[in-house]
Write a structure and sequence with these properties.
Layout: H1 3-14, H2 54-60, E1 63-65, H3 72-88, H4 92-102, E2 103-111, E3 114-117, H5 118-131, E4 132-145, E5 148-159, E6 165-178, E7 185-192, H6 199-202, H7 208-222, H8 232-235, H9 247-264, H10 267-277, E8 278-285, E9 290-291, H11 293-304, E10 307-320, E11 323-334, E12 340-354, E13 357-365
Parallel strand pairs: 1-4, 2-7, 8-13
Antiparallel strand pairs: 2-3, 4-5, 5-6, 6-7, 8-9, 10-11, 11-12, 12-13
Helix pairs in contact: 1-5, 3-4, 9-10, 10-11
Length: 366
C-alpha cells in the first residue's frame, strides 16, 4: 500500500491532535494573541495562545454535552483544546506553529494505533491537507479528568480535486502535563482513532526501532492472561487511572467493569446482561449505523460465529457527570484459523440512574 493511499484512508484520523485538533469553519475567528513567523515570501502566521480566552472561544466552539471542569489543570487543558480548534481555523502553518507551543520534542501522537513523533505527525498532516479540506462539525464531548482529556467531534472531509465530501467523527484520548510557568500545559501523548486496516501502511512513517517496539507491545497484549480474581478492578486494570470520586462515577465504573466480565463469559452471559447494562431505548452508534439494543445483540451474535473477542484491560476510563469515555484493549481470535491479534476500542457512553445502578442510554463506538 503506497503512502498516498494510506493518507487517503487515514484522512479522518490524521486531521486530529488534541489541542492541535480542530477542523472547523473559517468564520468567527477570534484574534487573541499574535505570534508571527516571517518566511522567505514575507507571509505572516498568526496564532491564538492565551489562557484567559476560554469564555470567548467557548462561544465559538460550544460543547454539546458539557461535563464539570473544576481544577486549574482541567481548566488549562480545556483552554489548550479550544485554542487548538481556533488555530486549526487559521490554516496548516498556524497549526504547525501552535504545535511548538502545545507539544514538546518528546511528545507522541498515536494515529490509528501507529505511534508517531511530533515531526512525523506534522509531516503526515501536511501531506493530508494538500489533498483534502477538513472542517469540524459538532464538538460533542470534552471529558477532562486529572491530566487526561477525551474528546469526540464531527468532521467533514472534502477532496480538493473531486470536491466530493464525506462526514465522519473522531475520538481522542490525550495526556497533558503542567511544565511550569515558562512552558505551560502541554501534550505528553495522544491517541486518535483505533487500530484499523491502514495500520500497516501508516507504520511507514516510523523508524524500524519504533516498529519493533510497537509490535512487541502488541504481542504482549495478545499473550496477556486475564487474572483469576473476583476483584474486577484488579481483573481489568486501568493503565492510566483518573479520579473516580462521586457516587454516580462509582456506579458507572462498576457497570463498565461488569460489562467486561459478562462479555468475557461468553455470548449467552453477555446477551442476558445487556438488558441490565443498556436501556431498552438504547441508541448504539458505530461508524456505519445506529442500532437498537435488539439490533446490537443480533450483530454481536453474528460476529461471535467467526471471531472470539476478549476484553483485556483499559488504557483509560474517564468519568465525569453522567458520561464516560473508555479506551480499552482487546484480542481477536479467528474461529477458523485460530490466529490471535490485538486491537483496541474507544467508546463514549451516556448513562442514566436506574435505582441503585445505572444504564447506558446512548453509546458511540470506534
Amino acid at each position: 500500500m503506497n503512502i498516498k493511499k494510506v493518507l487517503r484512508m487515514s484522512v479522518t484520523t490524521l486531521a486530529i491532535g488534541a489541542a492541535a485538533v480542530g477542523c472547523g469553519s473559517k468564520t468567527n475567528t477570534i484574534v487573541t494573541k499574535e505570534a508571527t513567523n516571517i518566511s522567505s515570501d514575507e507571509s505572516v502566521i498568526s496564532i491564538s495562545d492565551r489562557y484567559d480566552n476560554t469564555k470567548e472561544l467557548s462561544a465559538v466552539f460550544p460543547i454539546v454535552n458539557p461535563t464539570p471542569i473544576e481544577t486549574d489543570m482541567e481548566k488549562n487543558i480545556q483552554n489548550r483544546l479550544l485554542n487548538g480548534f481556533e488555530n486549526w481555523n487559521r490554516g496548516y502553518d498556524a497549526w504547525e506553529k501552535w504545535g511548538d507551543i502545545l507539544y514538546t520534542d518528546d511528545s507522541f501522537y498515536n494515529v490509528h494505533g501507529v505511534r508517531l513523533t511530533l515531526k512525523e505527525y506534522q509531516s503526515s498532516m501536511n501531506a493530508t491537507l494538500k489533498s483534502s479540506d477538513i472542517q469540524m462539525g459538532n464538538f460533542n464531548n470534552m471529558i477532562i479528568c486529572g491530566d487526561w482529556a477525551a474528546i469526540r467531534y464531527d468532521i467533514s472531509t472534502t477532496d480538493r480535486q473531486t470536491r466530493k465530501s464525506s462526514d465522519g467523527s473522531v475520538m481522542e484520548f490525550v495526556q497533558f502535563k503542567d511544565y511550569g510557568e515558562e512552558l505551560g500545559t502541554r501534550v505528553v501523548e495522544g491517541w486518535a482513532g483505533t487500530k484499523g486496516a491502514d495500520f500497516d501502511g501508516l507504520t511507514g512513517f516510523q523508524t524500524d526501532d519504533a516498529k519493533a517496539a510497537q509490535q512487541e507491545a502488541l504481542n504482549a497484549i495478545v499473550n496477556t492472561v486475564i487474572p483469576d480474581t473476583l476483584n474486577l478492578k484488579d481483573k481489568y486494570p486501568v493503565t492510566n487511572p483518573t479520579p473516580i470520586e462521586t457516587d454516580m462515577a462509582k456506579k458507572i465504573q462498576n457497570a463498565i467493569l461488569n460489562d467486561f466480565e459478562n462479555w468475557n463469559q461468553g455470548l449467552d452471559a453477555w446477551t442476558a446482561w445487556a438488558d441490565t447494562y443498556y436501556d431498552s431505548n438504547l441508541q448504539y452508534h458505530t461508524n456505519d449505523a445506529t442500532m437498537t439494543l435488539s439490533d446490537y445483540k443480533t450483530l454481536e451474535k453474528n460476529n461471535a460465529e467467526s471471531t472470539n473477542v476478549k476484553r483485556i484491560r483499559f488504557d483509560n476510563m474517564l468519568i465525569s457527570g453522567d458520561w464516560a469515555a473508555i479506551h480499552y484493549r482487546i484480542t481477536k481470535q479467528d474461529s477458523t484459523t485460530g490466529e490471535k491479534t490485538a486491537g483496541d476500542v474507544m467508546q463514549f457512553l451516556h448513562f442514566k440512574e436506574d435505582g441503585d445502578s445505572v444504564k447506558v442510554t446512548e453509546c458511540w463506538t470506534k
